[in-house]
Amino acid sequence: MRDQASGPRVLLKRLRELMQEPLEPQERLDRIVRDIASNMVAEVCSLYVLRADSVLELYATEGLNPNAVHLAQLRLGQGLVGTIAASARPLNLSNAQEHPAFAYLPETGEEIYNSFLGVPVLRAGRTLGVLVVQNKTMRHYRDDEVEALETTAMVIAEMIATGDLARLTRPGLELDLRRPVSFTGLSFNDGVGLGHVVLHEPRIVVTNLFNEDSEEEVRRLETSLGSLRLSIDDMLERRDVAFEGEHRQVLEAYRMFANDRGWVRRLEEAIRNGLTAEAAVEKVQSDMRARMLHMTDPYLRERMSDFDDLANRLLRQLMGRGPEDVAASLPKDAIIVARSMGAAELLDYPRDKMRGLVLEDGAATSHVVIVARAMGIPVAGQMKGAVSMAENGDAIIVDGEEGVIHLRPQPDLEAAYAEKVRFRARRQEVYRELRKKPSTTRDGVQVDLLMNAGLAVDLPQLAEAGAAGIGLFRTELQFMVASTFPRAEAQEKLYRDVLEAARGKPVTFRTIDIGGDKVLPYFKGAIQEENPALGWRAIRLTLDRPGLLRTQIRALLKASGGRELKLMLPMVTELGEIAQAREIIDREVRHLSRFAHHLPTSLKLGAMLEVPSLLFQLDELMKAVDFVSVGSNDLFQFVMAVDRGNTQLANRFDTLSAPFLRVLKQIADAGIRNHTPVTLCGELAGKPISAMALIGLGFRSISMSPASIGPVKAMLTELPLDELEAFFNDNLMAPAQGLPMRALLQAFADDRSIPL
Ligand code: PEP
Ligand code: MG
């Protein structure tokens, strides 16, 4: 009887020699199939490769009619070969012709063969082809033979993936691996990016496939597994708050997998068949991925991703690799493709080389997306499967406007997008020109266009966008991208940097607005709430945790020494909250002056108007503060009773409907009546049509995302304000013909060629 371990080992040794010989690709394939056939004592060995048009083409054969090479073909799912490719599972048959899927290809002359063993050629769980052996006698191939053929298929998968076979393809019949694919997900940040894929966690390419000494490899595997287990235990034991909650569950799952006996046994088996420990990890993982690909249970699919991460960690251990020096190896037009990512990890990439971000998971409000938005990078999310379809260096387009990505796009699509990018750049040029013009309506009324910000990465935009200042600095973002509470010094440094960057332009800092949808994973005091939007958030929370507020206020006061400090409170519901906050501020001022600290030259305290209760005490409110800023995102949510994060309701109610515009008019009027400056800093300010409405209602200061300033200013400079005021006089309380206000405003702009 044949030595079960030596059969595959001899074959792998032959393959290694063949891979190193300077052969033409066809010649190499021909020799590979010949050697497999002889090693496995099979009369036939054939390789089918999957093309982009879902057809499996015969690329090489020993035993079948050689004239059928590159001619014989089967569709995915057709015949035994097509069935293997579609299911990504092997088929082991002693009488192939009895199988219901058997399809006879006359050009191959295969009718005389009875037994059949076919395995998928897999890479990262994707089927790239099928490898088959056949015999005339009716025999059942042993498990070790199946394993050997699978291992050989893995070597062929590497050949395909490295582009070795590209020269054998005919135009229009490219391999599946190079197929253009598009994914539709969600838009997380506007913009269009053309560039090349950079996998955030690059699949580690195993180049050393064949081992010299199985026992030595098993020992290496054991050592690396040991270190892997230790590092997981370490993370679990760290009392680091960043590892609480969901994170912890994932780590628990990792620990379970890392100790999974079945997994370890399969790894050892692959090594004993001749693979290196690295190649064994890749093979076992690829098999497992292919098997799980057809599972629909979202929980199991999620666990599969965890297992992938774990396998990648093990590979890193085995290859002694630390985190790569990403910056150095990045192409100049990098599009980062990740399953998910922490905000801090994104900041590790150099901004000037990044053209876009693609996430398999994530939400518009996830921290990494907030940071990407601040950096002005197009982001598309919820792109399920993008990571496994993408290879490092593939051409890719991110369309953040539509929430679509195109991987390996066809030339005409690429050309169309390049045109789109040029068009957007021309428009940006127009906006840049506008920066020099005064920020006034056509009839000369000044309107301040400010920007919203929240991180140090936002600051360069102040000059680039030509904003008049920062109307809303969301201080909680610093807390959200951190893994523990930022220390007082770190807070003070950020505020100081912001004021420095503003070079005398006004900056309004909002005290930390957490709770609701803004959760800090490390905040132990957080509670489960039925209605978090109506719950313990913003000023409600910070008044109950005065230590948090005091630290922040002290940092703000110190950072603003010698300058004006503008401070505002989020989610004020009753005036008593303003008085309470003022007491805390006063106490901090007294404390700092006792220690002779450099204090702000003046301190202006404002309230955000987000809760409808304030609408019924507008005059009292205006008298209680130095300024008011309307948070239209929250105000709209509470006035209309519509959850701002609920996509089901996202387009149901109109922010420009008459009732909401009347609310805004009352606020603007109360400000004028009481000589209290009023601004608005929600998303409403950033759309030219709604910005136009706000100006018509009396707002003379609005704050928006930096990218909106150009389009809003283009509208502003063409706006005849006197006519718009007359329009509101006529229509606000009785819209013409009962039409929606949005339609009337659109018509107003169209009639006067105001660009919206
Ligand atoms: C708002 O509610 O409009 C606002 C500006 O605050 P945030 O979006 O941060 O809740
Ligand atoms: Mg708000």
The proportion of residues in beta strands is 15-25%
| Domain count | 4
Remind me, CATH topology of the largest domain?
A: TIM Barrel
**Lateral arrangement of strands in the main beta sheet:** 7-14-13-9-10-11-12-8
User: In CATH, what is the homologous superfamily of the largest domain?
Assistant: Phosphoenolpyruvate-binding domains
Morphology: elongated
Roughly what is the average pLDDT, rounded to an integer?
88
Low-confidence spans: 1-5, 239-244
Bound molecules: phosphoenolpyruvate, magnesium ion
CATH level 1 class label of the largest domain: Alpha Beta
Keywords: Cytoplasm, Kinase, Magnesium, Metal-binding, Phosphotransferase system, Sugar transport, Transferase, Transport
Main location: cytoplasm
EC number: 2.7.3.9
Catalytic activity: L-histidyl-[protein] + phosphoenolpyruvate = N(pros)-phospho-L-histidyl-[protein] + pyruvate
